[in-house]
Protein: DUF928 domain-containing protein
Organism: Allocoleopsis franciscana PCC 7113
Amino acid sequence: MAWFNRSLRIIILTAILAMALTMGFGANLSAQVPKQLRPNTSLSGKLPSQWNFTPPRRGIPVNRQGGATRGNPCIQHPEAKVTALVPASRMAATASAYPTLFWNMPQSSASEVELLVRDTNDQDIYSAKYTLAKSSDGWVVGSPGIMSLSLPAFANLSPLEIGQDYYWMLRLRCPMDSSDSSNDIVVGGGIVRVKPDPTLAQRIQQATPQERVALYANAGFWYETVASLAELRRDRPNDNELAQAWNKLLNSVGLDNTFNKLPTSPR
């Protein structure tokens, strides 16, 4: 029996040693993996590098950028552009019946903006004018910066139909009391509402706000990606990771990452 007990002890010690070596190797392995081989877990690393949307056959009758004419006092720097935050094709998808629309506003003295939404038959489905608040020096509050308007569910506006193309136009009135509209600046983009599949909808519902940005982006929902990331940036203005993600989002559609002012809250 003595030889049996010695053999059993040897087997047990060997097993313990093997387990310890295996656990130690596994613990050290992740520490030794080069950084370039590790998965990119930052938010910007989860965003697509390009957004590709096919515009409607008839096209979108509005540009995503518009500038002031020479001598127009509406924009402080004539080379600055009012820019709709949409892809280069100007068409983008939304999961929402009432999406939020974003644009970059240069330093401006405009008095109001008019938002117009039309269907592919050129029928107006929504039109509203918004007076712009001014600072004591006469410039629009929040300019230069990213501004937004949400389509209101309470203004007798029917929800956007799934699969239906729309386009929106933002008209910057310069000045409001002038009957001459030649100084007005008009920008905009296209919208198509797409219903998320049930699995994605459930994942979005269960996700953290930061995870939600990546889910929307990789599913191709541009308007929700911009809106959810803009909200995060407002809540965490000093977060460098969010700033990098915002810059990548703009660059992915060919927009200048100098639009780095914090987005204002939607109206």
Remarks:
- Confidence is low (pLDDT under 50) at residues 1-39.
- Residues 4 and 10 are 10 Å apart (CA to CA).
